[in-house]
Design goal:
There is one protein chain. The protein is an alpha/beta fold. About 40% of the residues lie in helices and about 15% in strands. The structure holds 4'-deoxy-4'-aminopyridoxal-5'-phosphate. GO terms for molecular function: cystathionine beta-synthase activity; transferase activity, transferring alkyl or aryl (other than methyl) groups.
Length: about 350
């Protein structure tokens, strides 16, 4: 019989899918690593499992323990799945800008969620970072994975994402593109790939409102770079230890709007119903290519971190898009539009 002993054994080994339409006119092969094939529908399942298993080995997490984390949702989902399989309780703190779906999904898999204000400093006692730390100090036998500074995060990608990409591309990869939030996906994978082939170009995708690009270019942590933005899961107002700046060749910033429109194009033109930051990753990758055209035999791999279901009330909703000035006209047809079009073409 062929079966997995529990859902956590299905994490990883996600497919590479060639992009065909949104890359029209571009030389080289552009491949998306589609992380929504993980059981929690995101790249973060990989690090959730690794952080838990490393904590178990170090004796930081004991039977009956509670896992407490500040998460934009995807790490929470991964932790919750692993916690269900292994018998731990989970409490997550989340910023209130996160989609309601993400909160509901975490509650569906048995986690407790504490919603905190988005627009406060990380040091503010109300921030989701601070609340997670406080709960960890108050709840006995609790473990705070701290995905930002816990190097098991990058290590998970060094051990899984990197080798997978290397094998899937038979070592032919020349460019690696990933959004940078905690930095784990970019840094761990980049370390593995650059150890195999040092001239692989690594492009970090940042967002307007985040400090990474400026920091990489100037070495200055500039508070003026920090302002609210809407895309979820990447860009930061802190410098997490998992961001290995020396392994990231350059950063490209992408706006909320360009990312949202590209995510919708990926769904409609490629059949990839993916999350908002996937739009950022692909838009940023194409910007890079505009500035540095690829050669015919170049192979670029872009990480697509999560699934579109978590954003149906946002970027996949025309009214929401219009309200945010991201769409001039409604693009999903009503029954009336369809009938009018049919009548028109029949005439
Ligand atoms: N996009 C989404 C939707 C995410 O949840 C995350 C994880 N925070 C990222 C991008 C960035 O990944 P990383 O934290 O590994 O840098």
């Amino acid at each position: 019989m062929k079966y997995y002993n529990s859902i956590i054994e299905t994490i990883g080994n996600t497919p590479l899918v060639k992009l065909n339409k949104v890359t029209k006119g571009v030389k080289g092969t552009i491949l998306a690593k589609v992380e929504y094939f993980n059981p929690g529908n995101s790249v973060k399942d990989r690090i959730a499992l690794k952080m838990i298993e490393d904590a178990e080995k170090k004796g930081l997490l004991k039977p009956g323990g509670t896992i407490i984390e500040g998460t934009s949702g995807n790490t929470g989902m991964g932790l919750a799945l692993a916690a269900v399989s292994k018998g731990y309780r989970c409490i997550f703190t989340m910023a209130d800008k996160q989609s309601k779906e993400k909160i509901d999904i975490l509650r569906a898999v048995g986690a407790e969620v504490v919603v905190c204000p988005t627009n406060v400093e990380p040091e503010d006692p109300r921030s989701y970072y601070s609340v997670a730390k406080r709960l960890n100090s108050e709840i006995p036998n609790s473990f705070y994975p701290n995905q930002y500074d816990n190097l098991s995060n990058s290590q998970a990608h060094y051990e899984t994402t990197g080798p997978e990409i290397w094998e899937q591309t038979e070592g032919k990869i020349t460019h690696y593109v990933a959004t940078v939030g905690t930095g784990g996906t970019m840094s761990g994978t980049a370390k593995y790939l650059k150890e195999r082939k040092p001239d692989i170009v690594t492009v970090g995708i940042d967002t307007y409102g985040s400090v990474f690009k400026k920091y990489k270019e100037t070495g200055i942590f500039d508070p003026n770079e920090i302002y609210p933005y809407l895309t979820e899961g990447f860009g930061e107002d802190i410098l997490p230890q998992n961001v290995a700046f020396d392994l990231i060749d350059l950063f490209i910033k992408v706006t909320d709007k360009d990312a949202a429109i590209m995510a919708r194009r990926l769904a409609r033109e490629e059949g990839l119903f993916v999350g908002w930051s996937c739009g950022s990753a692909v838009y940023g990758a194409l910007e890079y290519i505009k500035q540095h055209p690829l050669k015919e035999d170049d192979v670029m791999v872009i990480i697509l971190p999560d699934h579109g279901t978590r954003y149906i009330a946002k970027i996949y909703n025309d009214l929401w898009m219009k309200d945010h000035g991201f769409l001039e006209q409604r693009s999903f047809a009503t029954a009336k539009d369809i009938i009018a079009k049919r009548n028109g073409s029949a005439r």
